[in-house]
Amino acid sequence: MQFYHLILLVSISVCPILVKSEIKPVLINKFELAHAGFSTLLRTWTLNSTSWALVISCFNPIPGTTDYVYNVANIEWQLTTKITPTVLTNQIIWPNGIVPADTLLPYSIIVPSGFLVPGKTNGNLYFISQTGSPTPLVPNDKTNWFYHDADFKDMDGDGHFDIVAGRANIPIIGGPTTQLIWLKNPGNYSVTGPWKLNYLLTTGGPDIQVQFAHIGSLTVLFANSYFTRKLQMFWSDSDPLWSNASQLHVRHIDYEPLSYAYIQLTNDLNGDQKPDLLVTVNDEFNGSLIAYELPTSGDIRTGDFIKHVLATGFKPFSQGKGKGAPGQAFAVQFYSGPARKKPVIILSGDDDGCVYSLEALHDDDPSNWEYSKKIIHQSKKSTIGQISIEDVDSDGHPEMFVPAYNEGIVYIYRLMDN
């Protein structure tokens, strides 16, 4: 027996055990910004080199008022200095998450807008370039639609990228209507609106996020609905053309009716070198973070999506109509240590006031989906908006921007891999 103990001790000394380092958030700055909601980091062009801009949409609940979108140019140069955001626009009602629109015009954005707040339901998709004022792209049909996201695809093969989006109308009496639409790019050298509206689904479509992806030889659209509680995937028999709605197919990724708030196709969550879906369910009493393995059969249209619940039990720090947790999740890859083979998940808690980091407990086992969960930012009074994460100063450590809505503060952390 002593002989085997000696072998074990020699093995440990020759082959040291790899231990993951700790992800530690370091607060490096903060700045005031009233009603900070969604933050987005965008690539821009400054002084003959690419740079980062931090764009933040802000909204207040006062009916009928317009809201603000702010910009912090060259954020990598201002990480530890006094930050004063500049106004991009104050003409949009309830701006949501910012969508980079470089596909249409370099260094431009689309601002989806509108929400289920009295006097704020008349939304649109607004195009903003570096020099122009907001241009509404969706024709006004006298219905209060609101929008949260958009993606780009040449739907009809004319060589111009069109816009695809989900939208919702929630009447005072009756159930919600959710649609999947696309806007035809007129092919002008400058973007003017509105664009021609086309329907893929006039009812039963997504109302929050849409994301195109190439899975094998097939183009698919992943989408989710918060109000009609659906998690869906679309494809077209005429792919790569999607203009004929009769050729469109829809598949339910999950038949459990949940309030799916955000969806993201990641490169790989569990270390098997295959993409996975990362989904949050925003709920008043039991929100959750879920991963789905894409079908391994080679045909995403018929294979099984394998579901893994990564964390659950999220809820707002105070109950109320429209409140829920958690918010959006991001998979962040840290490369500084050989022991960390799976990405760290950074999760906004939304109305629970927290930001979380989740780390895989078993990096060498793709079949193991257990995670630890740690609070890395906490507020006892503020909703946390959409965070954004990038290594903007190229020092090897990502920066994290945290909008605290009720506090009117944006916190800046550096995520250190110690």
From TrEMBL:
Signal peptide residue numbers: 1-21
Keywords on record: Signal
Designated name of the protein: VCBS repeat-containing protein
Classification of source organism: Eukaryota, Metazoa, Spiralia, Gnathifera, Rotifera
